[in-house]
Amino acid sequence: MNHRDQSFRSPSFMSRWSNWVSAFSGTGLLAATMAVVFVSSSSATAAEKAELVIKDGETQVVKAFEDADFWIREDLWVETEFDSDEDGKRDRMHVAVTRPRQTETEGLKVPAIYISSPYFGRVGGDDSDAFWDPRHEIGATPPERNPYPEVGTRIKRPILSKTHITKWVPRGFAVIHSSSPGTGLSEGCPTVGGENESLAPKAVVDWLCGRAKGFKSVGGDELVTAAWCTGKVGMTGTSYNGTLSLAAATTGVEGLEAIIPVAPNTSYYHYYRSNGLVRHPGGYLGEDIDVLYDYIHSNPDHDEHCDCEVRDKQLGANLDRLSGDYNEFWKGRDYIHQLGKVRAAVLMSHGFNDWNVVPEHSYRISAKLKEMGVPLQIYYHQAGHGGEPPLKMMNRWFTRYLLDVENGVENDPKSFIVREGKKRDEPTAYEDYPHPEAETVTLYGLGAAPKPGQLAFERSAEPKQETLVDNFSFSGASLAQADWTKHRLIYATTELKEPVHLSGTASVTIRVASSKPAANLSVWLVSLPWNKSSRASINNNIITRGWADPQNHASITESEPLEPGKFYDVTFDLQPDDQIIPAGQQIGWMIFSSDQDFTLHPDPGTELTIDLSGTELKLPVVGGKEALKKSIGAE
Q: Which of 75, 354, 573, 577 is catalytic?
């Protein structure tokens, strides 16, 4: 349905048009497509034409585009190239368009900013009872999870979402929303990272560029075109929505010029596993990829087929909660293996304290795209999940790549990081991320268990082994604050006399023996003393974290049951970070087994023995070893 009112013909509207004067003076307009005169059908009097306005390399709000009463809203379905529900016809995706009235009345052509999501059709409701129960032994068959509650009434609405509309339509862009396959009013099956979730937004971009068919109804044949689009499209979105912008870019679709993914999940393995370990996203203990399928599958058509063929046969049969190994199923849902066709310029955004979609998701993709020479800029902040770049950064990005305005954004610094205590729109510019002056510094634990030990530059001359006892009932925070406990090992520097800037990815090698054939292994890097204040910020205490399965000490693709009492070297990365640890604090390295908020919860009692002669922490320190030595007074 095309939702068009007739108020644009009113005298008040014409008066506003005749009084409006463009503030633009200079170059950078799409003159060929913008210079269209509005003519009133009643008076045939020419009013001043609407044009996009560029100032200081950014697209400005234009008075003629501001009034939402005059925006054109369209509701349509775009035909894809796949039939994921196998009903004998190509799936159609539900699409909502919001665009300036002048695209209809003056022949104005505008670029499009597009957001695709599996969440637009969600009704809500409590789904926690359908999560996997983490309370079982590692490697044991988990208890069967409960059926997912019925979705309820399907949402039927032409306006899928209001996000980004008030930000971009007044600047002369069209804003597009679409529901991904099997969600909302879109046909097909959700696959949670399958190929159709890349091809669906590709089809919408193709429609915007005149290469795919759009229809006024899901089953009809009345066509809808996007003749108003310049053929330049940008995508953005947060979390799963950010994932879909990257997924679309991996197809290499022509016309998708720029994407701004915010906290995107770029690998479902890295979302639900860590180094061979079954690990749940922060805040969603017990969730797995089949649970997410049930959560987003909000189109009840073909329920039985999709649930059987996708949820049960594809996801359920291959997710492997027994070993946690990386397999072909997970590889097929890891976008790092699909980047070869990416041509869109990428502005990546993420929070260093995002424990839902952890920051390695953005970092690993950004590092690869940088190697490939794809135009890239990255924005990191110190908060949690979500948090798009400042409007100025997004505006410059879309202005450069959707309007071809030479605003020099490609010459801007490659990294913008919000420093501790600063607002998100006040990032500090850096030449790159990690900081170019960051160097790896190796530190070693000097044992004093069950009390905290020392974190030193030299390994102890005397061999030392320390043992901890697993008990998931103790939170990581309580273990980090304990002066004396057998449930963790912790090693800390002396008090910092000067701030220490960490930038990049810390890694650990832990020589470990287990009393059982399987065990969790968790590591936190913390800032001590622990700030117990209710006003403590999200990055006051936890610097970064990491998890691994000692059974995967040789490879994440193959588990090997541990021989009780035998030592194994387990090496893995912690989550990337950029943080300045203030003077007066200590940098602490905590090793423990089950992480209450992230891992499975086996019966307490498993003993992990750490051989400190084969255990080390590698920190990325700006200024290297000398800077850290100076800070702790060890020169």
A: 354
114-164 pLDDT, tens digit per residue, is 999 999 987 666 677 899 999 999 999 999 999 888 765 566 666 688 999
Phi-psi region of 184 (alpha: psi -120 to 50; beta: other; left: phi over 0): left
| Catalytic residue check, 239 | yes
Q: Which of 116, 198, 239, 503 is catalytic?
A: 239
Active site residue 350: no
Rg of the Cα trace of the chain? 27
Yes or no: say if 358 and 326 are a contact pair by the CB < 8 Å rule: no
Q: Would you say 268 and 289 are in contact if contact means Cβ atoms under 8 Å apart?
A: yes
Q: pLDDT by residue (tens digit) across 176-221?
A: 999 999 999 999 999 999 999 999 999 999 999 999 999 999 999 9
pTM over 0.85: yes
Q: From the candidates 94, 164, 385, 435, which is the catalytic residue?
A: 385
CA distance 129 to 135: 14
What number of other Cβ atoms are within 10 A of residue 181's Cβ?
A: 29
Work out whether strand 428-430 and strand 521-528 pair parallel, antiparallel, or are unpaired.
unpaired
CB atoms within 10 A of CB 40: 17
Place of tokens 């090698």: 509
501 catalytically annotated: no
